[in-house]
Amino acid sequence: MNERAGFAARLRAWRQRRGLSQLALALAAEVSQRHVSFLELGRTAPSRAMVLRLATVLEMPLREQNALLLAAGYAPAWRESTLGTPGLAVVRRALDFMLAQQEPYPAFVVDRRWNLLRANAGARRLVSFLTGGPPAAPEPETPINLADALLAPDALRPLIANWHDVALHFLRGVQADALQDGTAETAALLERLLAYPGVPRVAQLPAEGGPDPVLAMHIAKDGIALRLFTTLATLGSPQDVTVQEIRIECFFPADEATALVFRGWASAD
């Protein structure tokens, strides 16, 4: 009975998170509203296939699908590997290819909560310039969180001329992630970031847009000015929790002066 109650509460929470009525969920899952109601009340035990059907309709991340299965008394359906496992060799090769194609401009591989997993040479040069230290390793041994680096007052903040706008845009992305994946870890990340002094409230209105099509980050240090915008990519058709949560963030120069700086750094190596 405890397992049913746990499943019922999770199912109801995810239905409400997605803004669906019981009828809407029932129609999408091709079951009766009565069945959905009984599942949410804990009066009916779901089959494994029904759990996966409801999870798919609710667009639950693989990690949360596993949690829903466990709450219903079933084994997880999706494996969770570390990026270094032999089974993810093909994924690592793909990531390395993408990082190499981005040269001489920076590219980072991060997990769902912005922990750095891999970086190309362009990214390591940028980090070295920003921190004044030696280039970082391609795969850092000490965990580095790019979200904290961006928002903490004593990290990158003093070097970003338009930090307020960049921070606001980034925080809204983390807030959207927290709403989308429903995990305590992403909610905790958002709470931690919002606790930094001077961080803008996500409800604030952004500054009126200028002529640029995207928001560029303006970095200034030692007489060098960089203007960069980013793209985020994910891996398609994931069947592993880790693979689904990987993101590749690529930085592009927003002007020719920035492009020249990165090409100059690369040629100096």
Describe this structure in words.
The mean pLDDT is 93. The chain is 49% helix and 12% strand. The protein contains 12 helices and 5 strands. It has 2 domains: 2-71, Orthogonal Bundle (434 Repressor (Amino-terminal Domain)), CATH 1.10.260; 86-268, 2-Layer Sandwich (Beta-Lactamase), CATH 3.30.450. The chain has a 5-stranded antiparallel sheet. α4 (48-57) packs antiparallel against α5 and α9 runs antiparallel to α10. A hairpin with a 5-residue loop joins β1 and β2 (116-119). It has 269 residues and is α+β, with helices and mostly antiparallel strands.
Describe what is shown at a glance.
The chain is of the alpha+beta class and 269 residues long. Helices cover 49% and strands 12% of the residues. It has helices at residues 2-17, 22-29, 33-41, 48-57, 62-71, 89-101, 121-131, 146-151, 163-181, 184-194, 241-245, 256-268; strands spanning 107-110, 116-119, 217-221, 224-234, 247-253.
